[in-house]
Specification:
Layout: E1 2-5, H1 10-15, E2 21-23, E3 26-31, E4 41-44, E5 48-52, E6 55-59, H2 61-71, E7 76-83, E8 96-102, E9 107-113, E10 116-123, E11 142-145, H3 155-161, E12 166-169, E13 176-178, E14 184-186, E15 200-204, H4 212-219, E16 224-228, E17 234-238, E18 242-246, H5 259-274, H6 277-291, H7 303-307
Length: 310
C-alpha cells in the first residue's frame, strides 16, 4: 500500500472559494483536488527513527535533505517508507510525501563506549524502487538518492538518466550491512560503475576510511564528486581531474548530524539553477555550516539563515 500525503495551503483555500467545491457537512470550507505537480526536488530514501534515551528522534538523509529544500522555498517531494508506528509526520508539513507502507519504521541506535560508536539497525522498512514513483514524479528537475540501509534501488540511476533530471547520489547507505544481532558494519560497493549514471556523487571521506586513492577512482566515474571533510571543508572533483578544496564555514559546532545531507542537497539545488560549481560549493558549505550550530531538524536552515553568511 502507498500513501500520498499532500500539503494543505490554507491561504489558497481562504482566497479561492469560487474555485473549490464544498463538503456537504462543512459548506463554508472548500475542498480542492490534490495538485499533481512535478517536484523541483525529489528525495528518495527512508525517513527513520533514531533511538535515543527516552524515545526517538527523526532521522535519515531524506529527512534532512527534504527539509532543507522545503525551507529554501522549493516544491519538494519525498519518496519514503515507514510503518504506522512513525511518530514525526507532522514535522514534514508542506512537503509532498509518498509513503510505501511497511510493517515497521526503520530504526537506528548508536551506542557509545570509550569513545567508540556501535550502530544497530533494529528494524527496516520496505525497499524503494522506480515502480513506487507516481507518474508526475518521474521527471523532476533534481533528485537526491539518500539511502540509509541499502533500501534505495540502483535502478533509480538508470531510470532518471533517461529523464532531463540532475541526479545526486549519496552512497553512504549503500555501504552498510548488518548481522543477525542487528549490528551495523561497513561494506564496500562491489562496483562503483553502478553510480556512473549519477551527475553528482556526494560522500564523506570517512565513508571510505579516508582512502583517497579510492576517492580518486570514484572521481573518474562521475562528472562531479563532492567529498566532505568536516572541519577541513570539502573537495570537489570535476570530470575526474579538476580538483578544488573549499574551507568550512568558521562556526562553533554543536551537532553535525545531517550536515552531509544538507550539503549534498544545497549543492544540487544551487548547481541545477546556475551550473556554477564554485558558487554551488560555497552555498552548500554555508548551508551545512549553519546547520551544525544547532541540534536536530530544528537546525535545518532556510534561506534567511543561509543568506546571513552567503
Amino acid at each position: 500500500m502507498v500513501l500520498l500525503i499532500f500539503p494543505v495551503n490554507t491561504n489558497t483555500i481562504a482566497q479561492s472559494n469560487r474555485i473549490g467545491f464544498r463538503h456537504k457537512s462543512c459548506p463554508n470550507i472548500p475542498i480542492f483536488p490534490a495538485k499533481k505537480l512535478t517536484p523541483d526536488f525529489l528525495v528518495i530514501g527512508h525517513i527513520c527513527h533514531d533511538k535515543i534515551p527516552g524515545g526517538f528522534t527523526p532521522g535519515g538523509a531524506a529527512a534532512y535533505a527534504g527539509l532543507l529544500s522545503h525551507r529554501l522555498g522549493y516544491n519538494t517531494a519525498i519518496l519514503t517508507a515507514y510503518g504506522d508506528d512513525f511518530q514525526f509526520a507532522s514535522q514534514f508539513e508542506g512537503i509532498n510525501l509518498r509513503v510505501v507502507k511497511s510493517l515497521h519504521t526503520t530504526v537506528f541506535e548508536n551506542i557509545y563506549h570509550d569513545g567508540q560508536r556501535t550502530q544497530y539497525l533494529h528494524s527496516r522498512a520496505n525497499p524503494l524502487t522506480p515502480a513506487d514513483l507516481p507518474p508526475h514524479w518521474q521527471a523532476p528537475k533534481t533528485v537526491l538518492l539518500g539511502p540509509i540501509c541499502d533500501e534505495v534501488s540502483f535502478d533509480f540511476l538508470v531510470f532518471f538518466a533517461s529523464q532531463n533530471t540532475i541526479t545526486c547520489a549519496c552512497p553512504q547507505g549503500w555501504m552498510r550491512q548488518w548481522d543477525a544481532q542487528h549490528r551495523v558494519s561497513p561494506k564496500p560497493i562491489p562496483d562503483w560503475q553502478l553510480l556512473a549514471k549519477a551527475d553528482i556523487i556526494s560522500m564523506s571521506e570517512a565513508d571510505v576510511g579516508g582512502d583517497w586513492a579510492l576517492i580518486e577512482h570514484i572521481a573518474s566515474i562521475a562528472p562531479l564528486l563532492l567529498v566532505t571533510q568536516g572541519a577541513q571543508g570539502a573537495t570537489v572533483f570535476e570530470q575526474g581531474h579538476h580538483r578544488r578544496q573549499f574551507p568550512a564555514l568558521p562556526v562553533e559546532e554543536v551537532e553535525p548530524t545531517g550536515a552531509g545531507d544538507i550539503f549534498a542537497a544545497a549543492f544540487t539545488l544551487r548547481y541545477a539553477e546556475e551550473r556554477d560549481v564554485e558558487r554551488a560549493m560555497k552555498f552548500a558549505i554555508t548551508a551545512a555550516g549553519v546547520s551544525v550550530t544547532g541540534k536536530g531538524m530544528a537546525s535545518v536552515p532556510g534561506f534567511a539563515e543561509v543568506s546571513r553568511f552567503w
